[in-house]
Amino acid sequence: MAPVPLQAALGPALDFLDLAGIAVFALSGALLAAEKKQTLVTFFFFAVITGVGGGTVRDLLIGAPVFWVHENVTLLICFAAAIAAWLAPAGLWQGKALLWFDAAGLAAYSAFGAAKGLAFGLAPLPAFGMGVITGCVGGIIRDVLAGEPSILLRSELYVTAAAVSAALLVGLTLAGLPGGAAGLIAALLGFALRGGAIWRGWALPTYGR
Amino acid sequence: MAPVPLQAALGPALDFLDLAGIAVFALSGALLAAEKKQTLVTFFFFAVITGVGGGTVRDLLIGAPVFWVHENVTLLICFAAAIAAWLAPAGLWQGKALLWFDAAGLAAYSAFGAAKGLAFGLAPLPAFGMGVITGCVGGIIRDVLAGEPSILLRSELYVTAAAVSAALLVGLTLAGLPGGAAGLIAALLGFALRGGAIWRGWALPTYGR
Amino acid sequence: MAPVPLQAALGPALDFLDLAGIAVFALSGALLAAEKKQTLVTFFFFAVITGVGGGTVRDLLIGAPVFWVHENVTLLICFAAAIAAWLAPAGLWQGKALLWFDAAGLAAYSAFGAAKGLAFGLAPLPAFGMGVITGCVGGIIRDVLAGEPSILLRSELYVTAAAVSAALLVGLTLAGLPGGAAGLIAALLGFALRGGAIWRGWALPTYGR
């Protein structure tokens, strides 16, 4: 189990991905607030919940200190995302640009969450679960609070992409791959899968009985 | 306070009940995914949330390590329940069989959760609360995520049965009964009450002003 | 950072505010159960969730022992609030009396939550966040469980009042004010703001593009 090498190898890239992931997730929360014609305070609230929700639940479950409570930068990023969503011209966020950023955040976060699970000594399946939770739970809480149908209930590939990233990270790490390589492969394949869903509408079959 | 004797006395029976409880709760989550025509990935997600949700919230509240993160078996059971729900002929789960399994899980889990609360040194009322939470919260999260009216909002006896099991476990333990006896009596009476709701439609009066 | 002086200075006043805050929040939960024609068991459940929800999430996030699990009194207050809501003549809670109590609870709790965050060594922004969470999250969970549109989605000042109390507590404490003074000023101004919303309908502008 080599999550420490993962961090060492990716180093600044991982730190950047981490903050970029928080930013795009926070932005997606704030944009939902915009869609629902909310106040700036609600923009803030949704940005924070979406940006840090998944990682927060992961940290609680694995017994880690919650990652954003001992520094200001994480909340600052969420607040900046909320203000950007509030000020930007309405057209800017339309189209698919945000979906692609979100896909990058989803894939990187799912790999990162699974690696953190292994680093805290979790068994492989729960570590995989932490990856999925890190990638998806912020968006799920956002949808529940907004009264929107959750991403959970869409057949479009989303949770599946998170699951692929998380499973690859765990599998490749257990197979002895260095953490950096495992992280890159896991994130890239999850991203490709989610990309197929955005670009081509890839979806899973639904239960049809 | 004798939750350790409870475990010692019930021993393998308790272990079996524990795993069986996870399985029926996970199955009820997966069946809701089937009802809503979801994908297999959503079956997994709902099975896990419903199977481990209540115990997870309990463990976080009492400061215990979350029970399923250091082993694979709990998630394996949830995944197996999801696959069973996906593959089984649609008629198999209809009728009331599942409700009776769920009633057994509810009663056993509520007693077990209250006993775990006492074992962690909680005061009697919060320990009672942990029993109710262990029995009910997984189903509540499942319903919220699915956009269904929660079991909380039905007058049919459900939370009440959990409360009776939890209260009896705490009361009988404090009265000095050995843990095994307290656990059995608590679970059986809770099960009987929930059984009355399934079989006879027992319900509480609603607020009528 | 002087949250201990806050507690020392306010002393019994703070203890009283704490229990009164739990009581009014619990009452607001039970009254929603009444509005929805629920059973007494659901009254209990909603009273507890609303009364302790915000502080519970705060304690989990900052790594504090959850405040209500080692004593009976908190749950007793919630249960008493539920019974009071069940037994009282329907007219008693109508009008704005409850809103004013709730405003007092909101302001005091937001200041208290931020002070507890500082006392646990949090950075200023997360400590501010803990204040908002302590004041608002119980009500948010209550609304989600009841299937009501959340206070988050109303433009009326509510979360904003909590944010003002929390921000003032953190800012004044960092500026060196003694804890008692910071707590009083923070709670009074948050209360005034929320009062303006109740009395005059003060609201924030909503996103209008």
Itemize the secondary structure elements and their pairings.
3 copies of one chain form a homotrimer.
Chain A (H helix, E strand, L loop, with lengths): L2 H8 L1 H24 L4 H23 L10 H15 L9 H23 L4 H23 L12 H16 L4 H22 L9
Helix pairs in contact in A: 1-8, 2-3, 2-4, 2-5, 2-6, 3-4, 3-6, 5-6, 5-7, 5-8, 6-7, 7-8
In words, what does this structure look like?
Chain A has eight helices and no strands. By secondary structure, the first copy, chain A, is mainly α. The radius of gyration of chain A is 16 Å and the shape is globular. In chain A, 58% of the residues are buried. The model of chain A is unreliable at 1-6 (pLDDT under 50).
Specify the oligomeric state. homotrimer
Overall pLDDT level of chain A: 88
Tell me the total number of β-strands of chain A.
0
> Total number of helical segments of chain A?
8
Element-level helix/strand string of chain A: HHHHHHHH
Q: Mind describing the biggest β-sheet of chain A? A: none
Condensed summary:
Three copies of one chain form a homotrimer. Chain A has 209 residues and is mainly α. In chain A, 74% of the residues lie in helices and 0% in strands.
